[in-house]
Amino acid sequence: MKYTSFFPKARKSEFKDDLSINAKYLIKAGYIDQLMAGSYTLLPLGFKVVENIKQIIREELNKTGAQEVLMPLLHPREIWDQTGRWSDVNVKQIMYQFKDIHEKEFGLSFTHEEVVLDLLRKQTQSYKDYPVKVYHFSTKFRNELRAKSGILRGREFLMKDLYSAHTTLEDLEKYYNEVKEAYVKIFEKLGLKVIVTEASGGVFTDNITHEFQVISEAGEDEIIYCEGGDFAQNVEIAKVEAEKECDLGHGPLKKVKTIEVGNIFNFGQVYSKKMNVTFNDKDGKSQYPYFASYGIGPTRVMGTLVEVSHDDRGIIWPKSVAPFQVYLISLGKNEEAEKIEKELERKDIEVLLDDRDVSAGEKFANADLLGFPYRLVVSAKTQDKIEFKERKSDSAKQNTEGTELLTLPEVISRI
Hints:
Elements (H helix, E strand, L loop, with lengths): L20 H8 L3 E5 L2 E4 L1 H20 L3 E2 L5 E3 H5 L7 H6 L2 E3 L5 E4 L4 H11 L8 E10 L14 E11 L2 H22 L4 E5 L9 E7 L5 E5 L6 E3 L19 E15 L1 H5 L4 E2 L5 E2 L2 E7 L1 H11 L1 E2 L2 E2 L10 E6 L2 H13 L4 E4 L5 H11 L3 E6 L6 E5 L13 E3 L1 H7 L1
Parallel strand pairs: 3-7, 19-20, 19-21
Antiparallel strand pairs: 1-2, 4-6, 5-6, 7-8, 8-16, 9-10, 10-13, 11-12, 11-13, 13-16, 14-15, 17-18, 21-22, 22-23
Helix pairs in contact: 1-8, 2-6, 2-8
C-alpha cells in the first residue's frame, strides 16, 4: 500500500510532556484518535495491530477447546439483579446505568458473567452438555473517575473475555490452569514478558485471582515478586514486604510498578447459585456448575507494547503484531520501489510504501515513528540493491547505522 493514499498520515505536532508515552506515540503516528477522555478510535494502523493481537489470542484459546461467540453490550437490569450486582455500591461506581424512554433500566456491559449464565440456563440441561467454554471480543464500558494513561485506562475499550462452566471443581481447576498456561504463551507471542501474580478479585469475587503483569513505570499496579519466578503478589493482598529473602534462596523480593494485561477468576458455584443455573448429573440429581472467567484487553496490550518497546524516535513493534512488516522508502526510484513492493507482497510480506514527495529525513523519521520491524530504502545510491535495516533501538541513533545493502532475495530471506 502507498503512503500517499493512506489515512491518516502521521502528525508533525508535538504533545504535552505529561501525556503518556503510548498516547503520545500512537496518536502522533496515526494509530488512534481521541474522541474524548478515555475514548479512542482505532485508525487503520491501530486496527491492524489489534486484529493481529486478537488473532494470536484466538489461536491459543481455540486450542483449549473454547468457541467464539458475540454477546450483547446492552443489558437489562433484571439479569444483574439476579446476582445482586446491579445495586452493589462498587459496581454502581463502575457500570453505566440508565433508563430508556419507557423508564426501563439498562446497563452497559463492563463484564458478561450474568449474560453467560443466562445462556447456560437456557441452553444446557444435562452433565453431557458440559464443559462449556465460550469467549468473545467486545467493547466494555467502565465509568472511570479519571480516564488517563492513554489507552491503558479507558471508559470504553476492547476486551476478550472467556467463560467456562464445569460439572466438577476438579475439571474447572484443570481448565483454569490450562488457560493460565495458554495466557503465558499468548503474551510470549505478543512480545511481552508477564509475571503471573496473585491478586484480589475486586468487584468480581472474594477468591484469590491471578493477574498477568508487565513491569513498567507507566503502570498503576505494584507487585512484590521473586525474580526466580516462584512468588508474586499484588501489593493490595501482599503478606510480605519487599527485600525479604525468597524462601527458595533466589535473593530478596522486589517491589515494582506494573501494567495488568490479563486476569483470570475462579468463581466456583457462587454465581451459578445466585442465578439458579443447574444441570442434571448422571443420577438425575440437580447440580450447580462451577464457573470461571478469563480476560485480556487487546487495546491495553497495544498500549503496553508501546510503553515497554519504544525509543526516543518512536514505536518498536514486535513482528507478531506490527501492522506492516516493511516500511519501504523510495528516494526518486518509485518504479523500482513499486516492483519490490509487489514482489514482497507476493511472498505475503505486508509493505507500506512511502512514495511521498518529501525529504529523505522526513521519511526516515516517519519509519522510526511508525515502528515497523524493517525499513527498506531504494535510491540511486543503492543501485540494484536495497538498503536494509531492522527497527531496533540500538540501531536507530543514526539513519545509516545498522544498515546493509542486500539483494531482493536476501531481503526476503531475512524477513
